[in-house]
């Protein structure tokens, strides 16, 4: 399961794990993978706290940070707008619609002691840059960017500090742009993935991206949560995998119990690409909330970052009241998640998940080697190949 990315990053297995929970990131890194903290939901001050915590808990193992510096968003052509200026662009009709949906599902406001989710966060290049500035003050090994090509000066500064730059793409054309920008690793994100995705499936996308950016290494993402899927990704030319949804179902995620149970009960058919979260298509759990925004009564999602700003308080209210008697907030409650959610059936510690990935990967490779593509089993040659021994060196 080792590839050149293991040598590049100093990890044992080429499994990159995206999570907003620092406990998950640290546990993956300590277990031999590469934990990657999603910075989007943190202010620069909060991100500093999270990274200081990680520095103290990864036990010297490598970890990374993921930011969002979108190429296209509301106000981008003017260099970005202030939060106050953006708030003025949100129509009152959209605000009323949010309250109507919440009232329909009996979701009250937040008590005074509970703070609402910060509504702007990193949904702009300026905010992303501030998070990069914080991240580069820590001993991270990679900085990843989604929804666009990272600015060249950001790439150069990361390289100057010995940090690898990773970019997420949904098409081969986007991958070529990333290569031209000087990124070190490209993540081919298939439509099966959770969060922002394109329309091309992982099986088709990965080899297209591999061919487009050779010799830059590629990570496969989307629909990967089993060892056999990692084996398939490497067979397609990827040199590792980028995973996210898989880690929602681990002990260290400390997920809202209502949301956790919904994810564990979901099938691979229970996700939808919806603009309800950020204004851009993002795969998430299908809920009454996504249906409300995708239905005929909806005024239509707003462009990024206005949609997230519009709904941030509502989402906080859903999480807070999901288990409250007399509220139907649980019907609205959801999460970005990929189609691999259908394979999440129990809550396990991170280390157990990584161990199962490795074990199933080995079994899958051995099974292919034993049949030799002919359907006939050749167990001796398979074991030699799997252990790295050759006939002439036995």
UniProtKB/TrEMBL annotation:
Keywords assigned by UniProt, alphabetized: Dioxygenase, Flavoprotein, FMN, Oxidoreductase
The family database entries (InterPro entries) matched by this protein are listed as: Aldolase_TIM, NMO
Annotated region (Disordered), positions in chain: 371-394
Q: This protein's superkingdom?
A: Bacteria
Transmembrane spans: none
**What GO molecular function annotations does the UniProt record carry, in alphabetical order?**
dioxygenase activity; nitronate monooxygenase activity
- Amino acid composition bias (Low complexity), ranges on this chain: 384-394
Supply the Pfam families for this chain.
NMO (PF03060)
PANTHER family for this protein: 2-NITROPROPANE DIOXYGENASE (PTHR32332), MONOOXYGENASE RV1533-RELATED (PTHR32332:SF38)
Report what the protein is called. 2-nitropropane dioxygenase
Q: What is the lineage of its organism?
A: Bacteria, Pseudomonadati, Myxococcota, Myxococcia, Myxococcales
